[in-house]
Amino acid sequence: MIMKTSYLAYAIAVSCAATGTAQAAMQQNETQQSSEAEQKVLEEVVTIGYRDSVKRAVQQQRESGGIINVLKKDDMGKLQDDSVSDALQRIPGLSVERDQGEGRFIRIRGLAPDLNSVSYNGTVLAAPEAGRRAVALDVIPSDLLESVVVNKTLTPDIAAGSLGGNIELKSMTAFDRDGAFYSLGADLGYNQQASETNPKVSGVISNTFDIGGNDDSFGVAFAGSHQERSFTTDNVETGGNWDFDEPGLEEFEQRAYAVTRERTGLALNLDYRPTENAEYYLRTLYSEFADTEIRQGIITEFADPLAEGSTGAGEVVRELKDRTETQKIQAYVLGTEQRMGDWQLTVEAGTSEASESQPFAIGGAQFVQEFDDGLGYRGVKKLQLLAPDTAYQTGGYDIDEVEVSDAYTEETESNAKVDIAYDWMQPSYQATFKAGVKVSQREKTAREDIYIYEDFADLGVSGLTLADYQTGEVDYGLDRFGPGINAGALWQMLEPLERDEFFDEVESRIASYGIEEDISAGYFMFDIGVDRWQIIAGARYEHEKRSANGSRYNDETETFTPEYAEFSDANWLPSLVTRYDVTDATILRMAYSTGLVRPNFEQVRPSYFLENDDGDLKSEFGNPALQPLTSQNLDLGVEHYDESLGVVSLMAFYKDIENFVYEADLAGRPGYENFDEAVTFINGDDAYLYGLELNVVHQLSGFNNWLDNVLISSNVTLTDSEATVDWLDDGQLQTRDIALPSQSDTTANLALGYETNRLSLRLAANYKSEYLAELGDVEDSRYDIMEDDNLTVDFSAKWVINDNLNVSFAANNLTDEPFYVYTGQRRYNAQYERYGRSYTLGIQLINW
Q1: Kind and range of the H or E run holding 187
Q2: Looking at residue 49, what DSSP letter applies?
Q3: Quick check: 89 and 142 in contact, CB under 8 A?
Q4: Among 228, 233, 683, 745, which is 20 to 30 Å from 838 by CA?
Q5: Which positions fall inside the TonB-dependent receptor-like beta-barrel domain (predicted)?
Q6: Which of 415, 308, 297, 307 is nearest to 353 (CA)?
Q7: Cβ contacts of residue 98 below 8 Å, gap of 6+?
Q8: Cβ atoms < 10 Å from Cβ of 439
Q9: C-alpha distances in angstroms, 773 versus 265, 306, 760?
Q10: What is the mean pLDDT of the chain?
Q11: Which residues contact 793 (CB under 8 A, 6 or more apart)?
């Protein structure tokens, strides 16, 4: 029995499709007896391995109505995972897309972040970034949550919005613990590359109170977190600017980032339970993520494509970007649950708001120097500049232009829903019938005002060279860099100038738009348990009505006209989930489900830009008529639980995807016969994705020495996919097959742990193989932008001083793994970044 509780400590990422409401009712007495027995064991064993929280996570996974993974609060803190995204990457089938070395967006089973949904206590979270539906989970500190549930099977009671799965963020409540509780933590981090220390403080406090003669009927839970992190990033990138017809590089850029990142989160949750059959609750979330970034850059553009080691003419541009970007996400859910005999009624109203602001940032201040000869490069991944010494001196650079932008994006989502359930208990079977309706409204607005300052001599500006705005030598670890540009001096120069005279109306109006979506939904499902079988079946209906407004600009007439578009669509989304208990330890699962994702806002906005470039007619525009992506999903899996082995699970999945969206050039096609270029987004042919998830959790035993404290957890997901893109070539439609963007063939985790009563050690590795990041040229696979494989290794340690105090240490990115993206083949750099190692020392005070 002791060994059973031990192996559960590492079952963090067990893929489980467990029983639903009906079968849970059948096993209620057995579960209660088992829980009481295990509780006796837990009272006798002193543990620091989060075993109780993980046991509850696994139990939740087994009792769920679908195929899910669960992370509990304690598990998210094991490796100093500051954000939700960093914690989720350790779940089978999940991987992250990173920004500045931190996880930002989540991919589920190889599907891109925009094809998955994120919700907070049932309310779909709004996305702060312009053009996207994907929620950046690095905005949300992990300290604010009690658990995260990843739903990989989409049952009818889950709102549409994903093909890969739904990530449900669950807030804490005062009833999660008995009586008063508080936890206070302080961390001090250090980034090796920046030589900066980074503080973090967090705290949780909760308690229950007696109201109206009812004991412990009102609960208050509050959590807060604040972190400051300063770091640097060394970068060199070509952006895919290779010419493979005249082999050589056209241009590349070296960048030195200095970033200060602040992450603040608050959550306040109130619960009132006057009786056993009534509950009223308020869930709140506020999270703010601020990035202050100064980016010094050297852009080298060659007059003709150059091979490595050769030199020629060109220009070198020293560029500065200076911006502060703030993303905010807040959510509020007000609801009640009422139980009346075999009936249960749930009524909820929720709202979520997200914004991204970037007030008056320098988008690019450029100083240019021309060279008749002597410019080149050397290296493959880490390209280095070959240039005369004057390229590193200030006097040769003249100010060319300064771009300033003021941008703001806001998205709101409001909803109301009613769910009703009925439990029908019979001697030979039990069933739960559930139905509900939901209405929601989403609105996305984006505004960007762009100002282009140029011709500074004509404006009477006296400082015209880099010498007038220089800073000291830039700290850049990949190459010689030279002096940087002083942002303060630039702002001082721009201040006397009348900003409105430099307003770029065309770029500003094309970048601004507004979109509204109204969605009405209803569903019906039943959950029945008979003998060893569990069956959940039903369907969801969703109707969408969308309106959008933007601007059309005609370069020939220099005129703007408003653009307005409407779209309406309805879909049925059936699902069937079954479970069969082969034995008490072996479970077989099968599922059929359907998913739906609406195109992102960048793709459907009705902005239209038309220009005549010396007789060539070119246009770029959104496509409000895009159809939503839909998928039919099949899952088949088996799990085996054994007291000495732990957990072994194998899950196979297949997704047939319709209306795959990609960027295409419609020139020459009907309606665009006279165009030389007409770039927009279109629905493609069907795509598919399939794969296997394998998960093994095991604690060594039987050695009667220190080896019995060793824990092993590993998982691997193998996937493959295919989609077809097409284009016109001399009037003939051509096609080629590609992998779905963001799909890695292999995603894997391996963790080795050692635990005693007072000490916990863990070494974890996370791996994802290369994947297609972007189609550089639809017609030519040589220009496909590929993200290279990535392996990160992290270490954590925790020492319990006493029942109320513990100390922790973590080391992240031990191998100093870089981020590398290439064009077609690995020897052709598209982007290389290095972040360095990070270390964290923490202390936590807990009062149970």
Answers
A1: strand 181-191
A2: S
A3: no
A4: 745
A5: 370-814
A6: 415
A7: 104, 819
A8: 15
A9: 31, 25, 38
A10: 88
A11: 763, 764, 765, 766, 813, 814, 815, 817
For 321-344, what is each residue's pLDDT tens digit?
999 999 999 999 999 999 999 999
How many of the other CB atoms lie within 10 Å of CB of 601? 25
Residues in the chain: 848
Q: 315: Cβ–Cβ under 8 A, 6 or more apart, which residues?
A: 300, 301, 368, 369, 370, 371
The candidate with the shortest Cα–Cα distance to 846, out of 243, 182, 168, is 182
**Do residues 445 and 129 lie in contact, with contact meaning Cβ atoms separated by under 8 Å?**
no
CA–CA separation, 164 and 152 (whole Å): 7
Residue 54 belongs to what H/E stretch? helix 51-63
Classified as helix, coil or strand, 821 is: strand
Q: Can you tell me whether residue 634 is helix, strand or coil? A: strand
Q: What's the rounded mean pLDDT across residues 38-56?
A: 42
pLDDT tens across 538-595, in order?
999 999 999 999 999 999 889 999 999 999 999 999 999 999 999 888 889 999 999 9
Q: What CATH number should be reported for the domain holding residue 523? A: 2.40.170.20
Write down the pLDDT at residue 10.
34
DSSP state of 503: B
Whole domain around residue 307: which residue ranges? Answer: 2-847
Q: Strand, coil or helix: what is 601?
A: helix
Q: What is the mean pLDDT of residues 774-781?
A: 91
pLDDT-derived band at 76, boundaries 50, 70, 90: low
Q: Residue 552 is inside which H or E element, if any?
A: strand 533-554
Is the pLDDT confidence value at 5 over 90? no
Query: How far does the chain reach from its first CA to its final CA, in angstroms?
Result: 25
Binned at pLDDT 50, 70 and 90, residue 40 comes out as: very low
> Of 590, 745, 721, 695, which Cα lies nearest the Cα of 153?
590
CA–chain centroid gap for 603, Å, is 19
pLDDT at 373: 96
Pull the structure tokens for residue 361: 């940032």
Question: Nearest CA to 203 among 228, 180, 184, 222?
Answer: 184
Measured CA to CA, the distance from residue 495 to residue 487 in angstroms comes to 12
pLDDT at 7 exceeding the cut of 50: no
| pLDDT 10s digits, 284-334 | 999 999 999 999 999 999 999 999 999 999 999 999 999 999 999 999 999
Q: Residue-wise over 547-578: b if at least 16 C-beta within 10 A, else e?
A: bbbbbbbeeeeeeeeebebebeeeeebebbbe
Q: How far is C-alpha 117 from the chain's CA centre?
A: 10
Which one, of 303, 467, 310, lies nearest residue 371 by Cα?
303
491 vs 429: CA distance, rounded Å: 74
Position 353 pLDDT exceeds 80: yes
| More reliable by pLDDT, 180 or 63 | 180
Task: Name the residue among 321, 302, 315, 312 with its Cα closest to residue 241.
Answer: 302
